[in-house]
Amino acid sequence: MKPDYKNWMPKGMVLTAVLLTALFLILFIVFGLTGVVSGALKTVLFIVFLLGTLVGCGVSVWMILMYRAFSYGGKRQMSRQIIEGIAKRVKLPDGGKGLDVGCGSGALAIACAKRSPQASFVGVDRWGKEYASFNLPLCEQNAKAEQVKNVTFRRGDATALDFPDESFDAVVSNYVYHNIPTNDRQAVLLETLRVLKKGGTFALHDIFSKSKYGDMRSFVQKLRDMGFEKVELIDTTDGTFMTKKEASWMALSGSALLVGRK
User: Fold this and answer.
1) What is the separation of C-alpha 43 from the centre of its chain, rounded to a whole number of angstroms?
2) How far apart are CA 101 and CA 153, in angstroms?
3) What is the pTM of this model?
4) Is residue 6 part of a domain?
């Protein structure tokens, strides 16, 4: 039995884009190139369906390339590189507890739990319709496939975690917060850090662009002023997880690791 961590570019989204492109192409041929309609209407339909086909082709190719890059079974395996890179930054004490916010298919929580067999890890996620292939049973199946028994999963909301203050020795997350519809993602980061114990470590990976997060340099200083130690915002597009070129065409520019200790 092998784990199935799915793909960060869901296959359903890729297939939908391809099918819509094919539909536009068929409509372009039928209404734009044949004599089914004529005159001004034919000209309008020719332009509309041609543009739809061209845009669809571009989006489909981009999605396919993303799917290939993120695939755990492919050549690039960027997802695996990122997951393992984050997990390496987490070492829990004996009997310690860690939290993965937005665990998806369980990959990061399981990777962290494997590296700290003397501790335990919890993965929480809302498992919404956007990523319908990610769910609680999948996480549990993946943990079983990896023979990892020190990890559990449950539903949770990143904006209001159902845990008391200072519950965990480490908190991690990967590409989650930028998906949350809010005007204050820094507040969501603080909610995650709220459940971190004094002396605990954090490693949060996301697209920390100014458009999504505001001034992250000021936020880093804010954490330091609050007493957090060794707080850094580490660019992961410098070859750490991906190259600048990859980050650009994959729309991942601004990807960075927010790390430190409480």
Assistant:
1) 42
2) 10
3) 0.92
4) no
Helical segments of the chain, H only: 11-27, 39-70, 78-87, 107-115, 136-145, 185-194, 210-213, 216-225, 244-249
| Residues paired with 154 in a beta bridge | 124
- For residue 97, list its beta bridge partners: 120
Q: Identify whether residues 179 and 220 lie together within a single domain.
A: yes
Same domain? For 178 and 229 the reply is yes
Are 165 and 41 within one domain? no
| Distance in Å from the first CA to the final CA of the chain | 39
The amino acid that residue 89 corresponds to is R
Query: Residue 189 maps to which CATH number?
Result: 3.40.50.150
Counting the structural domains of the chain, the total is 2
The amino acid that residue 113 corresponds to is A
The domain of 192 spans 78-261
Same domain, 221 and 250: yes
Residue type, 108: L
Per the domain annotation, does 3 fall within a domain? no
Count CB neighbours of 243 within 10 A: 11
| Three-class secondary structure of residue 100 per DSSP | strand
- Provide the residue-wise pLDDT of the chain in tens; the chain has 262 residues: 899 999 999 898 999 999 999 999 999 999 989 888 889 999 999 999 999 999 999 999 999 999 999 999 889 999 999 999 999 998 899 999 999 999 999 999 999 999 999 999 999 999 987 777 899 999 999 999 999 999 999 999 999 999 999 999 999 999 999 999 999 999 999 999 999 999 999 999 999 999 999 999 999 999 999 999 999 999 999 999 999 999 999 999 999 999 999 9
Tokens at 226, concatenated: 């609050």
